[in-house]
Specification:
two-stranded antiparallel ribbon, ribonucleoprotein, mainly alpha, ribosomal protein, rod-shaped
Length: 108
């Protein structure tokens, strides 16, 4: 690739600054034309890179799903705890009522 860049720089001196700035070359090997140069942008990702990107996206989605499931579980646990507390409070009230009733009966 470096050799190609050098060759282009030799043939087309006006492209030298662009080459230095990190433009990349597309070489047309079928018709021995001068190399066309694309400024800026990135070369297209290779198949392998695309696959890696897809895998990363899938992993991220899985992680998000797991987090959502964990949150749901936590919410369920909190609800259960609240229900237990309410039951305990009600039981406590009932006991108090029973005690009060019994005391009243003992008085008379």
């Amino acid at each position: 690739m470096l050799a190609v860049a050098r060759e282009v720089a030799r043939q087309q001196p006006e492209l030298r600054p662009v080459l230095r700035r990190g433009g990349f070359l597309t070489v047309d090997t079928r018709r021995r034309r001068r190399c066309s140069l694309k400024k800026g942008g990135r070369p297209r990702a290779s198949r392998k890179q695309q696959q890696q990107q897809q895998q990363q996206q899938q992993q991220q989605q899985q992680q998000q799903q797991q987090q959502q499931q964990q949150q749901q579980q936590q919410q369920q646990q909190q609800q259960q705890q609240q229900q237990q507390q309410q039951q305990q409070q009600e039981e406590g009230r009932m006991r108090l009522l029973v005690v009060l009733c019994l005391r009243r009966q003992q008085k008379y």
